[in-house]
Every structure is written in C-alpha cells, then in structure tokens.
C-alpha cells in the first residue's frame, strides 16, 4: 500500500503540505501561530463559542460541501484533502463580501471578537440557503456566542444578506469547479503516516487498513470528529499519540436507508444524518436541532457519541429506545451488539482493545408506535443534557401497553433503560392512572446525582414529568413550548 | 477663496457604524493577542491554588523548572516592588499568594517558557502541600462564621422607619438570593509586556483602566509610573471584568519581562480566566416593607449582603451602588438601607455592568412584587402608586432630589405601545384554562444614576492634534471595548471642526498621551471623554479663529467651522488651507482637553449628597411561557422603551440597549455560577456556563429609544449614558416568569424566585406553590 508522509490541504488560495505535524496540533493554533492568520479568534478552546469558526470544504463523492467547524478542536491532520477557508479569504479581493457588508450595515459587531466566527457561520448559511427564516438563522448561529450585541442585529444582517443574494458572484462559489479539481488531485488513496516529535499520526487508506492498524496499535486513539477528543487535548492536555484519524473515510460515512431500519457508518456526522432523521425518524427532528451547535453537528459523529460512552451523550437513549445495535470490528472479525448492552459501567464499554465501531443499525419505530425524545438542559440550544429521556411504546387494540422501551441519559452512570418503569406500564391501559403508578418506579431505576447542570431532585422530578408529558402528547395535547418562526 | 463643500458635517445624532466594523468583519481588527510580538517573545502562565483556604506548607516548583522550554518561574519572592494589586490601596490583593491561599484558583506562581503550550503544561507540575483552614464559601457561611467585612459598610437613612412600619396597614418581610455573573467577554484576559531601557516597560493590556494598570505595574516593579506605558487599542469585551482584573495579568507580564529581559505575553485559558478572576457579586437581600391597601409604600428596611470574595477590590463601591438603586424609581417615605460586603474564600468579586446597581434594583423590585401579590394587584399599579413625584415625593434614600424624572411618561408610553393591559388579561384567561404551559407578563422600569460615586473619577482628558495636512489625530482616556465610545467621540470631534469622520483618526488609548485617566466604566465613557475631546477641539478652534479674525480684521466670535471650511462673514476658507497657513503662522495646532462633571458631591459617612449628575431611565415589558412539567421556559416577546437623552449615535445606543437587555436576561435566567464544596468553580467554561444564544432572544423584540427625551443637564450634546442601564430592563423577565409560576396558586402567593431563574428553579417553585398555595 502507498504511504504518504505528509498531510496536504488547501488553505484559502494556497496548497499546504506538512511533513512535521503532531497529531494534536489544532487548526486554530496552526492558523494563528504558524500562518499568522489572526482573524480567527480563540474564545474558549472547547468548541462552544464559535469565535474560531472556519469553513472546511470536502468532497462528498463528486460534490463539494463547505461546513462550519470549530478550528480550536479540529486537528490539522484531519484536514487532509480538504479546503480550509478562513475569514481572511472572504475579503481577499479588497472588498467586503455581501455577508460582511450586511454585518457592517446592520451594526452586527460591537467588540468584534465574536465577529469573524459569526461572519463565517452566516456566510455558510448564505451560500447554502438563499432564503432562511428566523429559525434557520438561529440554528446556523447556535454554535456562536456573542456577548455584546444580543444577536438582534446579527439576525438582521443574515436576513439582509439573504435579500441581497449575489451568491453566483461569490468567489468561493465561482471557484467551485476549480476547487473540486484541486481536491480530487489530492486524492491518492494512500495511507498518511507522520511520525514526528509530537508522536505518531495515521490516516488509514480505507476501513480495512484501519482495522489492520488498530490490531497493530490497539492503544491508539481513534479520532473521528474530535468534538470529544479535541477537548482532551485543549483542556486536559492529554497525549493522544499514536492517533488514528477516521474522519476522512468515506466507507464509514455510508448511510443505507432500508425499509425497516437504517444502517450508518460510524463516521456519519449529525448533520449528514439529519435529512434521514427528518424523513424516517421525524420524532427526532427537534431533538436533533438541540445536539451541539451547527459546527459540532458538522464535525461530531454518532459513532463517536456512542463510543465515547458518556452517560450524558444524547443519542444513546434515543437509539436504545429504538433498539439500535452496533457492529464492532477487530481485524476481520465483526460482532453485533445491542446498544444497551454496550454500556457496562461508567467509563467502561463492551469494546476490546483494537476494536472499533464500524456501523450502527437503527430500526424505525413500528407504525402506530408512540415515540418521543426529550432533552432537558439549562439553556435550550448548544447545551449538554441535564437529562435526556427517550420513550417508545406500542399499544394493543385495547389501548393497553404492549411493549415499552424507555431510556435515559443523565440519570445514571451510563445511558440506561428504565426497566422498572417499563414493567409498570406493560400490560396496563395507557392512562394517566397507569402513568401515575409507574412514576413511583422511577426511584427503583434511577438514583441521579447532583452536579453543576442540575440537582438530583430536579433530575428525578423532571424525569417523571417527562413520562407525564409523553403520555399527554400521545393523547394529542400540545404540552411543549415551541419557538415558532416570527 | 473657493471652497469645496463636503458632505453635510452634522455627524452627531446619526446612526453611524462602529469605526472598526469593517475590520471586525474581515478579521483585520487587532486585539492584544493579535499584535505582532517582538522576536523571542516568551509566554507566561499562572499556577493556581487548588484549595479555598489553606496554609501553604510546601511549594515545590522543581518539576516546573525542569519542564521543556521553561525559562523562569516566578513567585512572590520575585516581585521586585510590592506584591499587591489592590485597586483601592487595601493591600489585600497579592499578585502571587505567599504562605496562605485564600481562594480556589488564586495565582501562586507564574512560569515563563518559550511557548504558551510549554508554560501551560509546566504550570501543572507544581507540588504543593496545603494545610486546610476553615473556609467560608458563601454569604450564608460568611454570616454564620461572623466573617469580617472587606470594607466599611454603608447606611442610607431618611425619615422614621420605625414609625413608618408601625403606621403601615401591612408589613411583610422576605429575602432574595441574587446570583452572580461571569463577564464572559469573548476575548479573555491578555497582556504583553515589552521591556525597554532603564526601568521602562510598555504593556499592551486588554484593560478598561490603563492608568490603573500603569500604576499597578509600577507598584509591582517598584518603579515610577513615568517608566510604565500602557496601550490598548480595543478589547474583545469588558463589561467591568477588565476594570481591575486586568492588573494581575499586566503585572505578571511586566515582572516576567523585566526578569527575563524579553517580551512576555500572558493569556490564560478560558477555564483559568473564569476561575481566577472576579465576577458580578452574588447578593442576599433581606427586606421589610410597610405599605397600605393601595400598595403605597410607607417604610422600607433592607440589608444587602454581598459576597465580596477574599479581598476588597471594588466591593465597597459595588455594594454602595446596590443601596443607591434599591429604590429604583420609587419614593420611600421612610427608609433604612444597609450594605454588608462580606469577606469569603472565593475569587474577589468585581465590577460588572451596573456595578451592584442591578442587584439593588432587583431587590427593590421584589418588594413591589411582594406587595402586589399580597394585595392581589397588578404589579404595574403598585409601581405607579410609588413612582417618584415631580417636585414632591422626589427625595432619594441618599437625599438627592430627582429632578429629571420621566419615568411616568416612559411607562405610560410603553404600556400603551405594548398593549400591556389587554395582553395581561389574555394571559390570565389563558392560564385559567389550567394547562401545562403557563404564561406571564410584567412591566418593570429602570432608573439608573449616572456618575462615579467616587467623585474624583468624574474627570477625563483628551489629546487632539491637527496635522499640517488637515488630518485630525484623536486620543482620549477612554477605552474601546465594543461600546462604540471611539466613534461617538470621533463624531463629536468631527462635528466640532465641521469635518467628516474620515478626517478624524481614532488612536489607541495610551497612558503617555492622556495621563491619570479614570476607568472606562459607570457608563461614563462618552459623557466624560467626548466632553474632554470637545474641549480640546475648542481650544484649537479658538486659536484658528483668532488667526483668521486677525487676517481679515473681523471679530473672532464670528468664525464658524462647517462643511470642511472655516467661515468668517463672506470668507469661506478651506480647512486644509487654513490649517497649513496657521502652521506657517506658528499657531499651536494641538490641545489637551479636560472635563470634570459639575455639581456632584458625596459624603459617604453621612450617606448624603448628590452622587449622580443625572438619571437614565427605561422600561420593558416581557412575556414568557413556562412548562410546568419541566420548568423549561421561553421569552416570547419583549418591548423596550429606553432613554438615552438626545442620542449621539442611535445605532450604537440601540445596540447597547439590545445587548444590555440580553446580557441581563442571561444573568437572571441561564447563567448559573456553581462552586463545589471545595470552593472550586464548576461552571468555568461555556460548556457549563450558559450565556444567551441567538435562539434565546425573544421571538418578538421591539426596542425603541425615547426620541422625545433630552438630558436636562448640559451633557455632551444633551445625550445620556447608555452602557449599564439597559441591563436592568431584564428584570421584567424574572417577574413575568414569576407570574407564570404564581398562576398555579391562583396568584395568591409570591413565588419569591431567586436568581438566576433556571428551569430547575421554575419547576421547584411550581412544585412548592402547587403544594402550599390555594388551588386554582
Ligand atoms: C460544543 C459541544 C457541544 C456538544 N453538544 C453535545 C450534545 O448536545 N449532545 C451530545 O450528546 N454530545 C454533545 N457534544 C459531544 C459530541 O459532539 C460528541 O460526543 C460526539 O458525538 C463525538 O463524536 P466525534 O466524532 O466528535 O468523536 P471523537 O471526539 O472523535 O471521539 C470520541 C470518542 O469516541 C472514540 N471513537 C470515535 N469513533 C470511534 C469508532 N468508530 N470506534 C471506536 N471508537 C471511536 C474516540 O476514540 C473517543 O474516545 C458536544 C461537544 C461539543 C464540543
Ligand atoms: S474557540 Fe470557542 S469554539 Fe473554538
Ligand atoms: S460583538 Fe462582542 S462578542 Fe459579539
């Protein structure tokens, strides 16, 4: 197999080729310290503020897509074959682009520190969606904090830019074919391997190569979207070498939509899966908009969310309620594990050294099933769940609960099913009385803890109330707040 | 002589873009960390205490020294001057702790290395043996432990409170816990020091108070202030968090620079910034209020206890300002207010937009709310019954007369435009249906006193040069943190000279241009600095006028400056020409301007005086929905009417109002600071500390400036300060949430929500009221 010892990508108008690169070098430090491109700012170094937002363009088949990402937690190594666009590129011609000018005209900056990141998010939105409504604009800004403006002028700028249009004349849009060719030229099918002072980094050539590499280096850190691993580096200064990057592997990005279930590669991002959610699992649509912000959804993968094993990961409760299973692979051996059995204890999953998550199979709820997922957090968007509850029941002809799968995150050391509650429901009529009886069983399932996100009492009480909400919703009542468009 | 007439020069009172807007959006605006640093610049990082209160038995830094890239390790012993940066001269704010640490996160040492990453990693390698000492981590613990006060408390007294309470048909008492707030300036603290010859050092510091940084650096280095120069072009947000808190970083950078002979930069990670620097004070207000059947207040007796943290910092004036605003817009016939700035073992709390005022104001508003629930009245009617009068009932608890009162007109205007009464009725009807979702609405006013209560701070300087080509160099003592100060001052300067904004060059704030400046704080930036700049312009103008007058033999008083020209009778003289002529005629084309606020005085011992030059007013109506199953809520609609006098720049002012409101809303809703039982801040980054997002902005957000308002005082172009007051407009959000909660007990019980009103607090209050209140 061909091995290349450099990482290559386009940065604005320049081809970058790096042979001395550590696995933990972030794009933000590369831009600011190495390239002296200091328009991109650091506000938090943990993916939460968006001051470091840049665009990363990559080929998806023959298509070129630009996504916003957090440069602070994006590793340079993962950019191989990509086109990185930083704020400096937008007015490289000497004039402000439409979005930038709209931000000036609408007084969208005060201190200006969040502004480059905001501009990048709005620019991406403007390229992709010529006609966004308020909700869409807010969604594009979920990963961008501004402490000064109160956002109102920024939203006005987004609208004003949309009204002005002009996408076709935009430099990046106009360069699209050229860029596609440039990126195609970078594809050589080689494994990338750099063994520098910062330790070893590898980008396997394909999934078989990945499997082989992990067998060889079972202790290697697997890096997918780096929305967790990035913080190990920037916040805990952990050494991640040797690191095996998987974000570039197209095979892990496959989405196979079947009649009863969908099977996705472990590398499918939240953003990539969202259209399938809308179509096949519409009950999850709103919930999906509340995972991370746009940048995190663009980077973070469902496979990583599972493999990370966090008790507060958002997808496991929903996936457990749906009866999802994962395929674990080591070398050429594959195992199929129901997701709920994957989480053994806090920090411990059923994954052997050298094994990786290859794919996730997600059954759709049966027709007639009631299914809902609720996330409770201090702030509505871009916040980690205090708790997250997924509910799925099917009713028989008499209105009795035939089956129930209820799972929670944030209520125990792992994502966990509420088996006692389920038992109290199954076989009973789906009524408020049954629900009232089942509520008492929560304490048998969960003894939540207090932390900075919520107290144990609040978690316990609101978990119960989510079951009440679920029941009320199945009876057709509108009991959730909704932030409708203006 | 012919004149080319430029665009109309009336550049004040116009919505003008921020002077740096184009640079902001293109990434070309330089912040301190973006400046080109000298070759060989080193990087410093702080080692922080891991105990809230402890004796340091052993501080072993050998592993730190041995770490890769380390050039120096600095402790209190390496401070060449005085190891102290107390901004109020109390000597209680060490740069590095010595034998004792007083809060979790206190700097103990600094490590200097070739790269920031090296320094940061090395800082983790210290070995410390602590011997724990008793720690008071909260107001309650401090009170229980009989903690000392960091500064003399303040008492405000007027009238006979005892008699007032006795004579009141109703008396109620209660308490309110008011949470603190992290500034979360998007740009964290940062400083870069470059050593010069002799004792000189130049410090680039992200600070709202360059003069103080200068003095603190001099104090820490043991050199004269004249040896230290501090420069700041712009901050990425300040909000009070860079009023005194920048001193630490500047001092460490300067000490390290002098120690190593190299330029040194220091920029803490966000987590360390949040752990090691002060925040808005959390408060506990305890109140007793006597009132009659109409909701009219007879007497108020309240204590405002503040968590000062381990040192005084600005806790004295902050807790004073809480008392100054406990009355908000209401007349208290008899009143007794006390402050209690308590020492605790947390980070030393500091200035934050409003400077204690918001905590005082919301405590006062809580009393109004209590009265309304006790009497079953619309809180707005209670408010109206107690508004300060015009010419009567107009004396504040600090014995200043309110002479510019527009609160009634403002509230009336907003009540109508927001359709408050009808919407309130609709909401009451909606809630009566008893669903899971409940709604609330509230209208609250703001009256905020403008001036530093430290009277000597109310002065400012500016330096204006006119160069031979006619271009104008503007410098003043204020700092730009996003609030649009520079553009406002530039507008005034352009207007004075009859020029356009393009003719006026805005320059970085620098202590060697304008000395002894005050902090850019207390909303005073443009009031003070624009006046000082106007003074400088007028000096130059009068010299030019005399020159022109002499040249044409006409009176100098007839000379005007308009449209890029100097005019005298029928003589139209092009600005550039006249400037270069004046230079040849040896006219001095540079001036230092100066301003001090007239008419203010304050006797803190007596609790009497006129601390404020004038008041700024505003009012807001918030409508919210809550989910009674989970406590989740959303702010559906907000209407604001705010008074900025005659606005210097309506676009900038509107931005301050919108941004201030949202920041206040964050303070009161989702921004929760939590410490664990070890005294460690557990919400030390945006992943756990949640400031508002775009999707938290009210779906309907109608913000208006009161265009009819004009400052009755002779402020710069009759404008009013705008930085802080709008933050307090967010109190209506809390009261609206409160009403929604109260609906579960038929509005018979005041929910007494503490702040921030997180979803958890809403749900717990709903549960409490459902249990104890009358059923619907
Ligand atoms: C600002 C921010 C907001 C967030 N908000 C949310 C939220 O709302 N809800 C939520 O649930 N999460 C949230 N997260 C975390 C979430 O983004 C991650 O859990 C994400 O899903 C992990 O995917 P990744 O591809 O980024 O994983 P990485 O960070 O690359 O990896 C995570 C872990 O999984 C391992 N791993 C990754 N892929 C595989 C694989 N195929 N096989 C074996 N091991 C693998 C890695 O070795 C690592 O241990 C947030 C993160 C950030 C930074
Ligand atoms: S710096 Fe805050 S998200 Fe990257
Ligand atoms: S403009 Fe200051 S943070 Fe957005």
Provide a short characterization of the protein structure.
The complex is a heterodimer of chains A (486) and B (776). With 486 residues, chain A is α+β, with helices and mostly antiparallel strands.
Detailed description of the structure:
The complex is a heterodimer of chains A (486) and B (776). Chain A is of the alpha+beta class and 486 residues long. Helix content of chain A is 33%, strand content 22%. In chain A, strand 13 (325-330) and strand 14 (333-338) form a beta hairpin. Helix content of chain B is 29%, strand content 24%. Chain B is built from 19 helices and 29 strands. Classes of the chains: A alpha+beta (486), B alpha+beta (776). The interface between A and B is large, with 88 and 87 residues. The complex binds flavin-adenine dinucleotide and FE2/S2 (inorganic) cluster (FES) (2 copies).
Task: Produce the secondary structure layout.
The complex is a heterodimer of chains A (486) and B (776).
Chain A: E1 3-4, E2 7-11, E3 14-18, H1 27-34, E4 53-60, E5 63-70, E6 83-85, H2 98-105, H3 115-128, H4 134-140, H5 152-164, H6 171-174, H7 176-186, E7 191-196, E8 199-203, H8 207-216, E9 221-223, H9 229-234, E10 243-245, E11 255-257, E12 261-265, H10 270-280, H11 285-288, H12 294-299, H13 302-307, H14 315-322, E13 325-330, E14 333-338, H15 339-342, E15 343-345, E16 348-349, E17 356-363, E18 370-376, E19 387-395, E20 401-409, E21 416-417, H16 419-425, H17 432-439, H18 442-445, H19 456-474
Parallel strand pairs in A: 1-7, 2-6, 8-10, 9-10
Antiparallel strand pairs in A: 2-3, 4-5, 4-6, 7-8, 11-12, 12-17, 13-14, 13-17, 15-16, 18-19, 19-20, 20-21
Helix pairs in contact in A: 2-5, 3-5, 16-17, 17-19
Chain B: H1 21-26, E1 42-48, E2 54-60, H2 62-66, E3 70-74, E4 100-101, E5 107-113, H3 116-123, E6 127-132, H4 139-144, E7 155-158, H5 161-167, E8 170-178, E9 191-195, E10 201-205, H6 210-221, E11 228-232, H7 246-260, E12 264-266, H8 270-276, E13 283-291, E14 297-309, H9 315-324, E15 334-343, H10 357-375, H11 379-386, H12 407-417, H13 420-432, E16 437-450, E17 459-466, E18 472-476, H14 485-497, E19 504-506, E20 509-510, H15 525-552, E21 560-562, E22 565-568, E23 571-574, H16 575-584, E24 590-596, E25 601-603, E26 608-610, E27 614-627, E28 633-642, H17 650-668, E29 700-705, H18 731-742, H19 759-772
Parallel strand pairs in B: 1-12, 10-11, 14-15, 18-19, 28-29
Antiparallel strand pairs in B: 1-5, 2-4, 2-6, 3-5, 7-15, 8-13, 9-10, 9-12, 11-20, 13-14, 16-27, 17-18, 17-24, 21-22, 22-23, 25-26, 27-28
Helix pairs in contact in B: 6-7, 9-10, 10-11, 14-15, 18-19
The complex binds flavin-adenine dinucleotide and FE2/S2 (inorganic) cluster (2 copies).
């Amino acid at each position: 197999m061909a091995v290349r010892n450099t990482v290559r990508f386009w940065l604005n108008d320049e081809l970058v080729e790096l042979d001395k690169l550590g696995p933990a070098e972030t794009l933000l430090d590369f831009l600011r310290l190495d390239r002296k491109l200091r328009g991109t700012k650091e506000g938090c170094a943990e993916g939460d503020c968006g001051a470091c937002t840049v665009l990363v363009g990559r080929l998806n088949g023959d298509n070129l897509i630009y996504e916003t990402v957090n440069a602070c937690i994006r590793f340079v190594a993962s950019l191989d074959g990509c086109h990185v666009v930083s704020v400096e590129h937008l007015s490289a011609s000497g004039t402000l682009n439409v979005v930038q000018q709209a931000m000036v005209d609408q007084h969208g900056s005060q201190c200006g520190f969040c502004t480059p990141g905001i501009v990048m998010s709005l620019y991406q939105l403007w390229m992709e969606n010529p006609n966004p409504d308020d909700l869409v604009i807010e969604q594009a800004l979920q990963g961008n904090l501004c402490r000064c403006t109160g956002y109102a002028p920024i939203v006005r700028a987004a609208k004003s830019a949309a009204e002005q249009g002009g996408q076709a004349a935009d430099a990046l849009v106009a360069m699209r074919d050229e860029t596609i060719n440039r990126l195609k030229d970078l594809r050589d099918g080689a494994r990338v391997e750099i063994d520098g002072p910062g330790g070893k980094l590898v980008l396997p050539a394909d999934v078989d190569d990945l499997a082989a590499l992990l067998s060889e280096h079972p202790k290697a850190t697997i890096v997918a979207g780096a929305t967790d691993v990035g913080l190990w580096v920037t916040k805990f200064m952990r050494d991640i070498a040797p690191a095996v990057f998987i974000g570039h592997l197209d095979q892990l990005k496959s989405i196979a939509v079947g009649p009863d279930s969908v099977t996705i590669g472990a590398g499918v991002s939240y953003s990539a899966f969202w259209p399938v959610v809308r179509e096949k699992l519409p009950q999850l649509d709103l919930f999906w908009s509340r995972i991370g912000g746009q940048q995190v959804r663009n980077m973070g993968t469902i496979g990583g969310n599972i493999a990370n094993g966090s008790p507060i990961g958002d997808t496991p409760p929903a996936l457990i309620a749906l009866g999802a299973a994962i395929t674990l692979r080591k070398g050429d051996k594959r195992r199929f594990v129901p997701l709920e059995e994957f989480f053994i204890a806090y920090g411990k999953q059923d994954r052997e050294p050298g094994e990786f998550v290859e794919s996730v199979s997600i059954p759709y709820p049966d027709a007639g099933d009631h299914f809902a997922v609720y996330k409770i957090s201090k702030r509505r968007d871009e916040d980690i769940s205090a708790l997250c509850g997924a509910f799925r029941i099917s009713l028989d002809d008499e209105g009795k609960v035939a089956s129930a799968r209820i799972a929670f995150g944030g209520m125990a050391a792992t994502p966990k099913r509420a088996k006692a509650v389920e038992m109290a429901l199954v076989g009973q009529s789906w009524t408020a009385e049954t629900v009232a009886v089942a509520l008492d069983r929560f304490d048998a399932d969960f003894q939540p803890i207090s932390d900075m996100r919520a107290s144990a009492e609040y978690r316990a009480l609101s978990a119960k109330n989510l079951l009440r909400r679920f029941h009320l919703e199945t009876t057709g009542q509108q009991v959730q707040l909704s932030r409708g468009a203006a | 002589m012919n004149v080319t007439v430029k665009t109309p020069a009336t550049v004040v009172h116009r919505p003008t873009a921020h002077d740096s807007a184009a640079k902001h959006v293109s990434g070309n605006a330089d912040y301190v960390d973006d400046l080109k640093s000298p070759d060989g610049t080193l990087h410093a990082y702080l080692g922080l205490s891991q105990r809230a209160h402890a004796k340091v038995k052993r501080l072993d830094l050998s592993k730190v020294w041995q770490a890769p890239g380390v050039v120096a390790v600095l402790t209190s012993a390496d401070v060449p001057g005085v190891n102290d940066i107390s901004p109020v001269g109390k000597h209680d704010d060490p740069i590095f702790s010595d034998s004792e640490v007083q809060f979790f996160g206190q700097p103990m040492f600094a490590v200097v290395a070739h790269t920031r990453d090296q320094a940061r990693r090395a800082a983790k390698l210290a070995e410390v043996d602590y011997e724990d000492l008793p720690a008071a981590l909260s107001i309650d613990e401090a009170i229980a432990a009989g903690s000392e006060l960091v500064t003399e408390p303040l008492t405000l007294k007027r009238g006979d409170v005892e008699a007032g309470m006795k004579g009141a048909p109703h008396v109620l008492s209660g308490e309110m816990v008011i949470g603190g707030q992290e500034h979360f300036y998007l740009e964290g603290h940062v400083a870069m020091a470059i050593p010069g010859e002799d004792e000189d050092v130049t410090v680039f510091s992200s600070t709202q108070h360059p003069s103080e940084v200068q003095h603190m650096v001099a104090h820490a280095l043991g050199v004269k202030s004249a040896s230290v120069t501090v420069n700041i072009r712009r901050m990425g947000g300040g909000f009070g968090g860079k009023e005194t808190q920048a001193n630490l970083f500047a001092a460490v950078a300067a000490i390290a620079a002098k120690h190593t002979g190299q330029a040194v930069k220091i920029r803490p990670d966000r987590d360390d910034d949040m752990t090691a620097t002060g925040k808005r004070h959390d408060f506990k207000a305890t109140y007793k209020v006597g009132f009659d059947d109409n909701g009219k207040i007879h007497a108020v007796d309240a204590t405002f206890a503040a968590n000062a943290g381990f040192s005084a910092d600005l806790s004295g004036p902050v807790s004073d300002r809480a008392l100054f605003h406990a009355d908000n817009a209401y007349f208290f016939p008899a009143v007794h207010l006390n402050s209690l700035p308590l020492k605790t073992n947390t980070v030393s709390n500091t200035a934050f937009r409003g400077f204690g005022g918001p905590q005082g104001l919301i405590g006062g508003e809580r009393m109004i709310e209590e009265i309304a629930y006790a009497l079953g009245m619309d809180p707005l009617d209670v408010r109206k019954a107690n508004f300060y009068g015009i010419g009567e009932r107009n004396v504040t608890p600090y014995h200043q007369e309110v002479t510019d009162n527009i609160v009634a007109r403002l509230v009336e205007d907003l009540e109508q435009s927001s359709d408050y009464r009808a919407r309130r009725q609709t909401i009451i009807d909606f809630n009566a249906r008893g669903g899971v979702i409940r709604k609330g609405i509230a209208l609250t006013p703001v009256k905020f006193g403008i001036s530093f209560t430290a009277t000597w701070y109310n002065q400012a300087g500016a330096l204006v040069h006119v160069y031979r080509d006619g271009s104008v160099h503007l410098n003043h003592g204020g700092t730009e943190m996003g609030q649009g100060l520079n553009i406002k001052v530039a507008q005034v300067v352009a207007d004075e000279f009859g020029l356009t904004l393009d003719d006026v060059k805005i320059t970085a704030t620098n202590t060697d241009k304008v000395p002894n400046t005050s902090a850019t704080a207390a909303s005073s930036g443009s009031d003070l600095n624009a006046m000082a700049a106007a003074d400088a312009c007028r000096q130059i103008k009068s010299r030019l006028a005399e020159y022109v007058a002499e040249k044409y033999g006409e009176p100098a008083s007839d000379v005007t400056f308009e449209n890029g020209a100097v005019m005298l009778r029928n003589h139209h003289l092009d600005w550039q020409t006249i400037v270069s002529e004046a230079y040849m005629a040896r006219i001095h084309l540079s001036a230092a301007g100066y301003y001090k606020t007239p008419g203010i005085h304050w006797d803190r011992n007596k609790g009497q005086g006129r601390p404020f030059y004038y008041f700024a007013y505003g009012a807001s109506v918030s409508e919210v929905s809550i989910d009674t199953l989970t406590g989740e809520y959303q702010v559906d609609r907000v209407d604001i009417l705010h008074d900025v006098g005659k606005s210097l720049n309506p676009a900038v002012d509107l931005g301050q109002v919108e941004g201030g409101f949202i920041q206040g809303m964050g303070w009161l809703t989702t921004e929760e600071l939590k410490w664990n039982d070890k005294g460690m801040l557990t919400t030390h980054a945006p992943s756990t500390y949640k400031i508002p997002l775009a999707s938290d902005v009210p779906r309907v957000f109608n913000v208006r400036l009161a265009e009819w308002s004009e400052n009755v005082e002779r402020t710069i172009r009759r404008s009013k300060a705008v930085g802080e007051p709008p933050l307090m407009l967010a109190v209506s959000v809390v009261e609206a949430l409160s009403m929604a909660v109260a609906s579960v007990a038929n509005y018979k019980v005041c929910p007494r929500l503490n702040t921030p009103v997180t979803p958890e607090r809403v749900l717990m209050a709903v549960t409490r009221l459902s249990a104890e209140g009358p059923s619907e």
